[in-house]
Amino acid sequence: MDLLLIFIVSICIFFGWYYTKFRETLKLAAKLPGPPRLPLIGNALMLAGKSPVQLHNTFTEWASKWPRITCIMLGPQCEVLISDPKLAEVFLSSQKLINKSDEYDFFTAWIGTGLLTSTGRKWFARRKVITPAFHFKILDQFVDIFDKHTDIFIDVLKKSNGKPIDVFQPVTLCALDNICETAMGIDIQAQIKTDSLYVQAVKEITSLLIVRMFTFYLRPDFIYNLSSIKKRQDELIKILHDFTDKVIVNRREELIKSKNNNLDENSNIIDENEDIGAKKKMAFLDVLLHSSIEGKALTNMDIREEVDTFMFEGHDTTSSGIAFCLYNLAKHPEIQQRAYEEAINILGTDSSTPITTTTLNDFNYLEMVIKETLRLYPSVPMFGRKVQEHVQCGPYLIPKGSNVAVSPYFMSRDPTLWEDPLKFDPERFSSDKQQSHPYIYVPFSAGPRNCIGQKFAMLEMKITVAKALKHFEMSVVPGFNPIVMSELILRPENGIRLQLKERKAV
Ligand code: HEM
């Protein structure tokens, strides 16, 4: 009897505490549209135990039932999904609402608080220092690197001999080669040495971190730290950090030794050539080694955060974009034919024609195809912000502490925003067409925290797709449809299965 009384009193105390502490959040959240919630747990049970594909489907259903803005409660935690350009503008145009949502915290074990995950003064200073690394003169010299790795990619695809092939895996390895050489200045030959420890670790860590993100009981540190996944995560992170550390140390030593460079009193490496990257080949790492914040050189740890951020953000995104682009071309033979004709006009049929930034600028139709691909299949389907204060968003008041996810994926599929939204139509991006709202198409986000790698990504995607077009007539394996899932990156769960017929003219 006593025990029952203690139990009842404890429950009453808990409810009292819960509703006092979260009263304001719960009151405001109740006014936001969204699926019906249970007391205490909100919508947590509706998501628990679901696979990434099932989660994607659930969010798709909710975003169509409660369009523009959907509020999902995970216990007292308010998660707000935004798929309306006017509401998205509130977050994307703000200089203040730049804090990343809680989901990004899981990635800091690997990428630290680099450009993607940092906020406030740290982010601002880093953004300023890293921006020159994406100067067109630097990007210009990456074209050769992309070209070289794409040639290997084409050779890999040729081995399929017209049999069905899942292109997602080879595309990912090619993108890994590209990002390793451009970010760190080293050729890891991921496409040739597929068993490289570093490459395996990059692939495995991404999957592990995503398992944690989607498994609600693994989210709290005190539970996760006891799990076997955490042990494996630590092993992988050691491999990744040891690798990047070694590359940074070696590169710093090389630069110090180099007679073209000297050090100032703060150990900054001073480049005698003011015009950054104009004469020498520089990886992103070199630009960072030359950089300083408030007169102090970036430490090896600072640089590692940024190099690891590029490794994380700079290859899965472009792989997804390239793979879905090849799929769309394969699915639409008339669009493929037009893109192929453009590629042949620019590159010629001679296999020795080099690709340069100038030739890439001429690929107007291919650019429209890539943009349309990123509309229907944005590599980053949602990106998140944490709100530190209540935020007025159109007619809605979003409670302090909410995680807000802006979704280019759902925005692109909304029939009230796009005519015939599911139709793959590159003409939407022809120069004579105007977009109805500046934030209606945001695959690279927008505003202060937009994608710093946008131009890099477009160059890489153009080269890879142009060369694939030049060498192969692509078709989709009969009956194949990609099963899309949104992890942090949009992926096809069942790969991208194509049939590639080598073109005779090449
Ligand atoms: C198709 C390719 C890509 C897409 C669609 C894409 C998309 C995005 C989006 C939507 C964001 C904003 C994320 C957020 O607010 O949380 C972002 C940020 C970022 N992206 Fe990309 N990205 C791509 C390729 C790349 C590449 C190739 C790199 C590097 C080489 C890169 C580096 C970054 C970095 C460092 C940030 C953080 C910027 C900041 O917060 O200041 N991205 N990207």
TrEMBL record:
User: So where does heme get bound?
Assistant: C451
Instruction: Name what cofactor the protein needs.
Output: heme
InterPro entries for this protein: Cyt_P450, Cyt_P450_CS, Cyt_P450_E_grp-I, Cyt_P450_sf, Cytochrome_P450_Monoox
What membrane topology was assigned to this protein in its record? Peripheral membrane protein
> GO CC terms on record?
endoplasmic reticulum membrane
User: Record's family?
Assistant: Belongs to the cytochrome P450 family.
Q: Could you tell me what this protein is called?
A: Cytochrome P450
Recorded source organism is Chironomus riparius
Q: Source taxonomy lineage?
A: Eukaryota, Metazoa, Ecdysozoa, Arthropoda, Hexapoda
